[in-house]
Amino acid sequence: MAHPLATEKIWFDKARVEEAESNYYAKKYSGDNAVGSATATLLADIKNIKDHIQGVLASGSEEEEIDMQRLEKLETENQALKALINTLEARVCALEMGNKPAEAPSKPAAAPAAEEEDDDDIDLFGSDDEEDAEAERIKQERLAAYAAKKAKKPTLIAKSNIILDVKPWDDETDLAEMEKLVRGIEMDGLLWGTAKLVEVGYGIKKLQISCVVEDDKVGTDDLEEAIVAFEDFVQSVDVAAFNKI
């Protein structure tokens, strides 16, 4: 039975093979001393270069192996730290859970906080708005009630009592006719009153007549113009008295 490594293409004694190769080429070119010496030197240089390359490769593989070892070590330490952190967190949680019953008596102190939360829930500005709206509504209701009450009351009409002195041209003027003409003046808001004849002088008398007028409808100027229009009888008209009623 063949050995298991007989079929593998592996150099198990690479150094001996390279040395045999060097000796072969040295003997082959030994007939010519110059060529043999140069060949031997060249082979030696090649061997040195190969050895150097192998050394570099070997050192590189060692560094990579060292880096891999460091990486594995760091991963192991990282896992250990994670496990430690988890353990510490579990212990802290357990301590917190264990301390909760001890803090139970302090629960009543939370009542002021609840009251503060209730105070915070109060919308101060909203309440002001509601109060303003309610005050405005009450104001409008009172104004409407006042207006309705005022509408039911009879409106007071401003009136005045006027006494006029109507003077004739002379003593021959018919004063009775003149009074008739004056009383014949009709205006909305005019009501004639009593009249009398007053001595002026030299046998001349004037007609003194009273009337009541609504101030918004009849003015003294209107009355004077209407009376003076009887120019055949009336010389002038004066206001003897004017009183508000």
Task: Set down the secondary structure blueprint.
Blueprint: H1 14-28, H2 33-99, H3 111-121, H4 124-152, E1 159-168, H5 175-183, E2 190-201, E3 204-214, H6 220-228, E4 234-244
Antiparallel strand pairs: 1-3, 1-4, 2-3
Helix pairs in contact: 1-2
- In spatial order, strands of the major sheet run 2-3-1-4
Taken as a percent bin, the fraction of beta residues is 15-25%
Unreliable spans are none
Distance between the termini: 157 Å
Largest sheet: 4 strands, antiparallel
Strand runs, count? 4
Global structural class: alpha+beta
What sort of overall outline do the alpha carbons produce when their principal axes are compared? rod-shaped
Mean pLDDT: 76
Helix amount, in percent?
Answer: 55-70%
Question: What order do the SSEs take from the amino end to the carboxyl end, as H and E?
Answer: HHHHEHEEHE
The count of helical stretches stands at 6
CA gyration radius, whole angstroms: 70 Å
What does this structure look like?
The chain is an alpha+beta fold. The protein has six helices and four strands. The protein has helices spanning 14-28, 33-99, 111-121, 124-152, 175-183, 220-228, and strands at 159-168, 190-201, 204-214, 234-244. A four-stranded antiparallel β-sheet has the order 2-3-1-4, covered by helices on one side. A hairpin with a 2-residue loop joins β2 and β3. The radius of gyration is 70 Å and the shape is rod-shaped. It starts with 13 loop residues before the first helix and ends with a strand.
